[in-house]
Amino acid sequence: MFLRACLMAFSMYTAIPMPRFYYKKEDGRYVFIFFPLIGMVIAAFFLLWQWFAFLWFGAVLRGAISTAIPILTTGGIHMDGFLDTVDALSSRKTREENLRILSDVHVGAFAVIRGVIYMIVMFALLAEAPFRLTLPLACGFILSRCVAIYALLLIPNAKGSGMLFEWQHQMHRPSAFFSALIFTLIALALSIWSAWAPSLIALLVVALVFLNFRRIARKEFGGITGDLAGYLIQCTELGWTFALVVAAQFI
Fold it and tell me: What's the domain range around 133?
């Protein structure tokens, strides 16, 4: 059961090829227990590249590949949610219309603009990041997925249907919370050990990002969806990276 749930998590939320299994409906109860593991895999790819790039390449290539690693590993599923959410929020319409826009397969101009800005800013931050931030930056991929689990535990589903609703509705909440808590503590411990002051400032920024997201999700959409969860992950990673890099310039 747990193996199938782990494979389900990686099959759904990464582009990494997974063995084909016969999945049972109850396996979805434990999918989010393994969600932070995806962050650990991305963090491992990120660390390997960073350590290699600092030895052999300049800041531009290092920043470009570092920006691409999480998107290539996940297949862009969370960035897709970010773009859809930006489109919906930019429409400034009713909850019902916002939810309809989330389901629209077309990409709006606002999504393209904000997506390009996001990538430019993330690229610049990662190109500017000093070597001592390598481990804290990698931990951000773990932390962002833990934050998404907290959101799923605290915010009701906006649609009342779909795969995420099924998984969220039947989720084994104590196990999901315990998993997110353990991985959060691991990520924070490694980050604080490596760069304690920037990491604490970044943690505060992540908390503010989460509180703002909860307000937006409830006010504009009436709850959370898969796209909104992707939006939260991307915003958390950008906020964490921004705070770390900027704080490291002064501390």
Answer: 2-12+30-250
